[in-house]
Amino acid sequence: MTVSISDVAKLANVSISTVSRVINRPSLVNAQTRERVQSAINELGYHPNAFARGLMLRKSEMIGLVLPDMHGEFYSEIIRGANLKARDLGYNLIISSAHDPDDMHSLLDGVRQRRIMDGVAVMVAEVTDHIQKSLGELHLPFVVIDSDIDGVAHDSVTIDQREGARAMMRHLLDECGAKRIVFVGGLETNVDTMARLDAYRVILAERGITPTDDDVHHLDYQYETAYAFGKEHLRNWVGAGNCVFAANDEMASGIIDAAYALDIKVPKEIAVVGFDDTRIARMTRPPLTTVRVPMALMGATAIELLCKRLADPEIAEQRVSLRPQLITRRSCGGGGGSGSDRA
Amino acid sequence: MTVSISDVAKLANVSISTVSRVINRPSLVNAQTRERVQSAINELGYHPNAFARGLMLRKSEMIGLVLPDMHGEFYSEIIRGANLKARDLGYNLIISSAHDPDDMHSLLDGVRQRRIMDGVAVMVAEVTDHIQKSLGELHLPFVVIDSDIDGVAHDSVTIDQREGARAMMRHLLDECGAKRIVFVGGLETNVDTMARLDAYRVILAERGITPTDDDVHHLDYQYETAYAFGKEHLRNWVGAGNCVFAANDEMASGIIDAAYALDIKVPKEIAVVGFDDTRIARMTRPPLTTVRVPMALMGATAIELLCKRLADPEIAEQRVSLRPQLITRRSCGGGGGSGSDRA
DNA sequence: TTGTAAGCGTTATCAT
DNA sequence: ATGATAACGCTTACAA
Known about the structure:
Two copies of one chain form a homodimer. Chain A has three domains: 5-57, 434 Repressor (Amino-terminal Domain), CATH 1.10.260.40; 62-159 and 295-323, Rossmann fold, CATH 3.40.50.2300; 161-293 and 326-332, 3-Layer(aba) Sandwich (Rossmann fold), CATH 3.40.50. In chain A, 44% of the residues lie in helices and 15% in strands. The first copy, chain A, has twelve helices and twelve strands. A six-stranded parallel β-sheet of chain A has the order 2-1-3-4-5-11, sandwiched between helices. A four-stranded parallel β-sheet of chain A has the order 7-6-8-9. In chain A, strands 10-12 form a two-stranded antiparallel ribbon. Chain A has 343 residues and is of the alpha/beta class. In chain A, helix 5 (73-88) packs parallel to helix 12 (295-311) and helix 10 crosses helix 11 (249-261). The interface between A and B is large, with 44 and 44 residues. Strand 2 of chain A pairs antiparallel with strand 2 (92-97) of chain B, so a sheet runs across the interface. Chain A binds a DNA duplex (16 and 16 nucleotides) through helix 2 and helix 4.
């Protein structure tokens, strides 16, 4: 049933080494025999056994993509970009996601144990000692997506979150004449939220503004949560020049819908902006001013960095920071025009 | 650096076969030696080499998930469900998606050639001769997601699209008093669209209604396309008791937004309903009446079927049909209440 | 109960 | 330019 290298050898009347050469270093074999072997290969429909190959070469042409979660467009776009690039480069992608933050550890442990992947791209959304330790013990080339981790040498691809958040803050303050900006983030431990919040504080500080306790809130990135939260608090925030800066589009969408339910006009009575520029940003009413995060590119870049390292393990640490882009639409009341698209 | 079975054997003062037995059939080895070997394993942090193992056992504990595309929540939810289940069952998931329908063939070809996966789950959205042929030649256990393919024995998991579409049509006609229903589908070759359209026609026929040419349209499942299309045609469709049945939520959302842009009230002047119950169904204004498709469950079920077959190749063909569920919200004007959730 | 030895299908190192 | 042959790390008869 299954045809092996020796079958080919027999049919072509050569030794298995010659067949192997035809496959791996064709230049080393005489044109005539090469052709003979090649047609034997075709005739039998021979393909090298990947296991045997992996056993010898200690590589599989497979790389892992480990994610902390798989809900939402953010993750699926990363997967999409990574998958495309991996295929381009001749690699297969093994994907797995953790049930919860702690689970990440056991996942990486599994990766380390099976060592069937040539390398792995790991998205780290919350940096914990656990994960840091797991990565340190990986003994496998890896690239970190969305974080830089102290004390461990590694390649990484991140978004310049601060730059994106700063651009948004400046737009709000300078173009839209915002007076008060309420920040609605994800969990406090979330690296994205941390960076965005930091930029929020920095820009505010530059203007001599100190946010109050009622100006900074931590939710969980979910539409429903933000909707409920908005219903409860939006009335306190209403006012000309006031504004909600949500740390992702889903929450922004929830806030907008809450405003709608409370009959509060967006952006007239309160502006709302988001982050990520997922598909829903064009589907809110009004369309959402947000910061475009190149999600698929991030996935693709991660794979690219990883493969470069696999090709040459000696190269210097690579740290790529991708630039996000401010997309202004109508939800902020400002000059909603720079966005090329409008719904 | 890398510790092998013979290292363990040496340390435990046994032969490698004993070590192998401790790992694979512990009952065959004396409790004392077993313990000795086990602690040697622990001490050295030994894990069997997956390649060598695969070479002997002809299996890898890896299964493929091949998708026609990766855009949108539908696919990402399938991946999520599949990934969860695969992990539960101790398998790794290798994911790949085709650039375009034809590309599917080369993808499956790659799967066949490397034969490093124990089996593969293939989502087939458009049945072509090409794909049918590829599957026929796979020589690998596989399960088809979202289609049943003639002339090839296979397991499959599908959605009872017709049942879902019928439920929607009945709701529209009986509960909402719909008079005219415009169907906006995806590509004519898309299996989902075909099934949904078929149910649409059947139910209409039952009522003695024959849809006109202006009642059935084929777009591409995209929000933007539907938005543009809606802007162009919505005026012709307006009327009490009139209704647009979009074959997915994205298009329904586009239609709703087009109505909004034209100042046409939904559902008062025209009702709009969708299909799938993706996240955006709760985010349209008004929230969307739709048919919930258990996407993650579909992915999980596919993996489950596949693993059952791997465990016992002799079992009879398994064909699972998942039931979709009508979710009524406010976009259809009917008794928008059965939906447990509302935005 | 344990050990010996023969594969599994490759690639790589020698000779020739 | 080609062919023997020894790894690679494991499982599994078969012997002891």
